[in-house]
Here is the input.
Amino acid sequence: MALGTEGYRAALVAKIEYAGANAESFRKAAEILARVGELSISVKHVQRITERLGRERAWQRDQDVERMKARQLEPVYPQPPKVAAVHLDAGKIRLRGDDGRPGVREPHWSDTKVACLQTYPSVPCEQDPQPDPPALFLDPPRVVRLCQEMEQIRGNPATRPQAAKANTPLLAETIGERPQRLVRTAVATMQGTEGFGWMVAAEAMRRGFYQAERRAVGGDGGNWIEPLGQMHFPGGEQILDFLHLLVHL
Here is the structure.
């Protein structure tokens, strides 16, 4: 029955972990599990299971990194992807003092780094499918407005949700036909660029990205992204996000 140490089936443990990791608190997670999952579970039990699984995932991630450094990590899938893309970005996360007591104290912002690893079907083109910029980028007044909106979103973290919500229509106009996404995984950390780079490389190796027919590394032009791509994904196409280029121009 795939029972774990707590006596729950694996599928139920996965639900507890999801609720505990995504709800705003362990108490809220327990309430959601009781109402939606019809599972009577204490707040402390949700916390213990969620934190245990988090430690196990972190331990497995670190083991993969060490095996990657030792050139011992192998792909877990026999068939490599056709097209593999690694999207890199830095961001902000809201934290609080971690002294074990309940409640929020010492709220502050900290830096994060995130990688989104995606695969796509291979659709080669003999000619550039979109040789000219979208019409929006050729309208100077609208470009100015777009850049101002992006600067507002990237500026004060406290104003980001409101700015992003208010400016969604104009930003949506820049999106053309999207490629079909097949599989997406992500890694994130508050570590520096070096440690983050090895995490990304290990996940890419695990998913067979190094054997892909075509590879790309995308980013916003941050001065840490290109060196990371050159070190861990040599030969891959480095792609600059056009919207961030517009802001700098």
Notes: Residues 43-69 form the longest helix (27 residues). Residues 83-248 form one domain.
